[in-house]
Amino acid sequence: MSITPWIVIGVAVTVSMTLVFVVHWLLTHQLGKVWPNARYVVSRSAVTAYTAAAVVGANLALPDRDDVSWNTYQVIQHAMQILMIGTLTALGISLAYAATDMVLQRLSAKNGDADRRARRLQTQVRLLRRVITSIIVVLAIAAILFTFDAVRALGAGLLASAGVIGIVAGVAAQSTLSNLFAGLQLAFSDALRIGDVVVVEGEWGRVEELSLVNVTIKIWDERRLVVPVANFTTTSFENWTKSGTNITAKVVLPLDWEVPISELREEAGLLITGSKHWDGRSWSCQVVDISGTGEIQVRVVATAADTGDQWNIACEIREHLITWLATNYPESLPRSRTEFVTSAGNDDPDYAAQFPTSAFRRAAAPAAAPGTAHDSTNGSAQAGNPEEV
Are residues 51 and 150 in the same domain? Predict the structure, then answer.
C-alpha cells in the first residue's frame, strides 16, 4: 500500500474533525447566546463527536479493493465496521443524554419538596434513559459480534433454541431483572421519587439517585446508604414526602408530677406561635402518659411546612422548655423518689432524721400482737410487718 491513501485518510479525518470543531464553536459562542441549552450538547458530545467524526472521515477515504491485498482489505473493512457501530452508538447516546439533561434542568429548576409532579417526572426520565441506554448498548454489542462470521453462523442455531436460552438467561439474571422491574415499578407507581425524604433501615435521608440496580440515600450526616431497588418493593419503608411536605414535629418531655401544666402549655404556645418554623396550622401541649418509673409524659407538637422546619422547631421547643423549666420550676424536672421502710425492731430516729421527709419516708411499725409467730427464713414477723406507703 502506497503512502497516498494514508495521506487521503489523514486529510479526510482532519476535515471531519474540523467540521465538528466549527459546530461546537458555534454552539458555544453564537447559538449559546440565544439557546442556553446548547451547552449540554457541547459538554455531552465533547469526546464522542470528535471520535465519530474521525471514524466517519477515515471510512469515507478508505483505499479501494485494488489498492491493497485482499486480506488487508478485509481486516480494514471489519475494523471500520466495528468502529462505526461503536462510535455512532456512543454519539447517539451522548446526544440523547444531552436532550434529557435539558428536560431535567427545567424540572430541577422548580424541583422543591412541594413539587411532587416535577420530582416524579425527573425520576422517570432518569430511569428511562438508563433503560434505553442499556438496550442500545446491548444491541450495539450484538451487532458488533455478528460482524464475525463464526458468531453469525452460530446465531442461526441460537435462534432455533431461543426458548431454552431464554429460560436459562432468565434464571441466571433473575436478580438483575427483578431490580430492573422493581425500579420501573417504583418510578411509575409514584412510590419513590428522587428528592423524597425517607427512613430506610433506621436511617433518615433523601433519595439522591434511583438507578436500575440501587437506590442511593443521602443521609443527613453526608453518608450514602446504597439499597437494592428490589428491597423497596418487598419491604416497608417510610416516605415523608409522598403525599406532601407538611409534617408534624413532636417533642416528649418526661417531667415530675409537680410541673405546672397550664403555665407550661402557655409558654409552649408563646414559643411556637412566635417561631418562624411554624406553618400556622396547629400545635398542642398535653400530658399523654405516665411512665413506669413515675414521670409524666408531656408531649408538645407543632406543624411545619417541611422536614427542615420540622427538625428546627422540634429542637427549638426542646431547648427553650428545658431552660424555662430549669429556671422557673426546677422541681418539675424528672426525679427518682426512694422510700426507706425499716423493720419494727430497728427504729432509729437519729438515722431517719438524716434524710428530708420530701425525699424519703419511713413508715411507723405497728406493735406485734402477743403470741405472733416469726418467720425463720427472713427473721421478720409474719403479722405486723411495716406497711409500705
Answer: yes
